[in-house]
Amino acid sequence: MSSLGQVAGLSLRPAGSPAPVAVDGMRLLTGIGADGDRHADALSPRQLLLAGADAYAAFGLAPHSLRENLLFEADVSTLASGTVLRIGQRALVRAMFTCEACGQLDRHGARLAARIGARRGILTRVLRGGEIQTGDPVHDLGVLLDPWPDDWRERLIRVLDAAPEGSVVTYARLAHLAGIQTSYCRAFPRLLKNLGPRYARRAVTARADPAAPRWDGAGLFDPAPAS
């Protein structure tokens, strides 16, 4: 176990809010996310976004430019997927994958999305809930759980591999479970065709045969020890 300093800032994005709202404390809900945040979702790998204060300093960013939920004193870009962090005395979060630097970041600096790379932050899920506050200590407990890949294509494969035999996943649900925008669905037909029939038959459009059993992702994020 190693120290990652303290929580330097907290923010929530309530439903309908265009920007993060700074808070002094928040309640993390086991397997769901932050209470009151628009990204709280039991079937999402993107429950919380963690960013490092060093990225703000390095790129001269205004507060909340990275739209993070938790701002850490430490650099989070080096955290490996599967790492478990303890925040405060009780809460545990699981590092999932690097948050892709989208073009919207360019509003905060010229070519910022291209320049910031992995320093945008890391997406996490809540393993164990609890009340957290600004100033709480953060500890790295090590890589304790199975990692998830940064490449969204590899995440699609991971999701489809987890689907129960005989079930199908709609394109929209597949994108959601893989942590990508539904706009990526346009690329699914060609990608799935290239992956072969085993994968192609597991992903369907919303208008496909309604009799085929749909899998919603239940159990996908159940913690599995790192191999």
Task: Walk me through the topology.
Elements: E1 2-12, E2 21-23, E3 25-29, E4 33-34, E5 48-52, H1 53-59, E6 70-72, E7 83-87, E8 91-98, H2 112-116, E9 122-128, E10 130-133, E11 137-143, H3 152-162, E12 169-170, H4 171-178, H5 188-195, H6 197-200, E13 203-204
Parallel strand pairs: 5-6, 12-13
Antiparallel strand pairs: 1-2, 1-6, 1-11, 3-4, 3-10, 5-9, 7-8, 7-11, 8-9
Helix pairs in contact: 3-4
Describe the 3D structure.
By secondary structure, the chain is an alpha+beta fold. It folds into 2 domains: 2-143, PK beta-barrel domain-like (M1 Pyruvate Kinase, Domain 3, Beta Barrel); 151-227, Winged helix-like DNA-binding domain superfamily/Winged helix DNA-binding domain (Arc Repressor Mutant, subunit A), CATH 1.10.10.10. Helices cover 19% and strands 28% of the residues. It is built from 6 helices and 13 strands. It has helices spanning 53-59, 112-116, 152-162, 171-178, 188-195, 197-200; strands at residues 2-12, 21-23, 25-29, 33-34, 48-52, 70-72, 83-87, 91-98, 122-128, 130-133, 137-143, 169-170, 203-204. The strands form 3 sheets. It has a 7-stranded mixed beta barrel. A 3-stranded antiparallel β-sheet has the order 4-3-10, with no helix packed on it. The chain is globular and about 50 Å long. The chain starts with a strand and ends in a 23-residue tail after the last strand. The mean pLDDT is 91.
Radius of gyration, in Å, reads: 18 Å
CATH architecture call of the largest domain? Beta Barrel
Q: What ranges have pLDDT less than 50 throughout 5 or more consecutive residues?
A: none
Number of strands: 13
At the fourth level of CATH, the homologous superfamily of the largest domain is PK beta-barrel domain-like
The CATH class name of the largest domain reads Mainly Beta
Range of helix content:
10-25%
> How widely separated are the two ends?
19 Å
CATH topology of the largest domain: M1 Pyruvate Kinase, Domain 3
Mean pLDDT across all residues, rounded? 91
SSE sequence, one letter per element: EEEEEHEEEHEEEHEHHHE
Report the portion of residues in β strands.
Answer: 25-35%
**General shape:** globular
**Helix- and strand-based class?**
alpha+beta
Strand numbers in spatial order across the main sheet = 1-6-5-9-8-7-11
Number of domains: 2
The biggest sheet, with number of strands, parallel, antiparallel or mixed sense and barrel status, is: 7 strands, mixed, barrel
